[in-house]
UniProtKB/TrEMBL annotation, chain A:
Residues 485-498 have a biased composition (Basic and acidic residues). This is Lactate utilization protein B. Residues 474-511 are annotated as: Disordered. Keywords: 4Fe-4S, Electron transport, Iron, Iron-sulfur, Metal-binding, Repeat, Transport.
UniProtKB/TrEMBL annotation, chain B:
It comes from the Bacteria. Residues 3-83, 131-215 form the Cysteine-rich domain. InterPro entries: Cys_rich_dom. One of its GO terms (cellular component) is cytosol. It comes from Paenibacillus nuruki. GO terms for molecular function: oxidoreductase activity. Pfam families: CCG. This is Lactate utilization protein A. PANTHER family: LACTATE UTILIZATION PROTEIN A, UNCHARACTERIZED PROTEIN YKGE.
Amino acid sequence: MNPASSTRGTVKERADIALNDDFLRNAVRFTTDRLRSGKKVASTEHGNWEEWRERGRQIRLHTIAHLDYYLNLFVENARSNGVHVHFADNAVEATDIVMTIARQKEAQSVIKSKSMVSEEVHINQALELSGIEAIESDLGEYIIQLAGEGPSHIVIPAIHKNRYQIAELLSEDAGETLEPDTTILAGYVRRKLRQKFLEADIGMTGCNFAIAETGSMVLFENEGNARMVTTVPKTQITLMGMERIVPSWADLEVMATLLPRSATGQRLTMYMSGITGPKRTVDADGPEEMHIIIVDNGRSQQLGDPEFQELLNCIRCGACLNVCPVYRQIGGHSYGGTYSGPIGAVLTPALNKNVAEWDDIASASSLCGACYEACPVKIPLHDMLVSLRRRKVERGHGDKLEALGMRGFATLMANSKRFALAMRLGKIAQKPFVHNSGIHLKLGPLKGWNTYRVAPTLANHSFRDQWKELSAETAAQPKTIDPAVRQRMEQVLADRQHNKSTSRTGGESHE
Amino acid sequence: MKVSLFITCLSDAIYPKVGEAMVRLLAAHGIQLDFPPVQTCCGQPSYNSGYWDETRTAARTILKAFQSSDFVVSPSGSCTYMIHHYPELFKDEPEYLALAHELESKTYEFTQFLVKVLGITDIGAAFPYKVTYHPSCHGSRLLGIKDEPIALLNHVQGLELVPLPFAEDCCGFGGTFAVKMADISGAMVTEKVDHIKETEAEVLVGLDMACLMNIAGNLRHRGEQVRVMHLAELLYEGVSVR
């Protein structure tokens, strides 16, 4: 593993590196701003975005609830189309299957299109260890492969690099100086990859969606490289997360509406390929042999878990990264896993079931809910982050000092007299530290806060201390309430009573 | 009808003026607020950190405090939203679960109560300043409070409301996040204040003292003169000076 996408250290340590890298932060801001405003325009222009979003959520909920059925259907149909279907429980099994196929084919080189699952199981490293060349053909993936890094964004893997850094990497690859001009740089990569496409023994892809009713797989892309990967080499291997299924092509229409708009603000990507089996005699092109490896790697552990099952609804659009105010500051590598941003902060610990790691990543969120608001299938990531934190505490992996602090908090807040007394004592205790009615002290828990801020002081008189006087004063000059206002309040009360009684009857009728 | 004030621990201890403004504004409209003193904290700090037993301890004081209220009004969208987690927290304690459902249905954030319940958008205030508004995340996203504060601000005479760039981005507070992930939080509040400065507003207004405490702290740290106010304070000042 390379240092930038290493899981070593804490998220705080990794974030510190990013926070001190202005190139990275500017590059991330520049591109996420473009993507999120693109999404805003595309979803507004769509007109019925919220209804389609709900439809998308329902399709994903239904599919995941019946995943066994739809997976079976998909596998049966894919096999009858002539596809070799394999199952991999984990990353090792997935790479073993790929290696077996590569050996059978005596493959020397593999050309890949963008696939997060292949990053997740670290297929490139496995291939290279066996002396098989693995080349990424997506421009962003090619760049990070040259840099020896993992993706720092689900959709834009090299989002953290600016064009000058990219020109430097590509110049080194080319052995000549390339101007930092996007046309020149893309032109170089195109020429270089053309040769690699022609030489490759195996084309390897991911899978955006798998259609159960016909056993087909669907890829969304903009560069045309995935289409080349699935047409030029004689053998195709597709790595597919086991949850990528949708029941039908009609359902795909909803996903095709949600995914590109959410990811890049496009109405549709430049290419959308639907592939149903290997090349037939009537086909002009396509692989002679096609394999689909269905990867579990921790996904099935979410099934039946009421707090995390919805994670499997994710369509990997990256919209949650683009709106995340934390991702914006620290970029993707700080998350320490293949998946970054809010979805990565939940997915990485959930897939690994690594309790010790949980608090670390899940704590790097202000729980602002922007991810949930942006998600095209409404995954409640902000709630899942809290669930991760709670499970860590429940299993005794919480920070000892924090646990002590929280017990103190509960003792204090259990009783209002104690709370009132604490406020009075606090006023006395703060005195030596107050300067110009603020606290500037950079010690203990105030250190982090006051590095960026001046802390406020406790009020001279708390609200509860002022209450008696305040209420006597306002009661002494009572004003009459506007009858229209009173009527509105009575209506709200009546509606509430009505809702309560109907929900009660509703509950009984089910029993 | 009993309308009770859920002051929130932060406003009680640090920003009592916000509570006073709410009490006086509503009294002027014939609504005498009630203040049940047994209330302490909604429990959000421990809830968000994953300590739910501790949360229940604090939450019980809130459930008991407002048992007999018809309406509960709070100066914080975030603490109001915390009440919405109570049914989940007390799902195994039937007597508290009933209270939790009831409290959830009758608790309102301040502008929600003014606009949605009372139907008041013009409070008769004047405030001749350039103002920008930061929509706090929990109130705007999770409670859906988007139009209410804007309607109230648009009716204030002389007030010039300037849009805040990247307004919907979190200010970086996030409770214990600001302490645990101090540098990330610091970077977030720094960017928020950069945007506030771009507006050249004289006043920053919001609906959540926790976020405003965070932003005000960074403004002060940088020696900026922007005044930071809760909307209740702004409206009350706008009514008082007329």
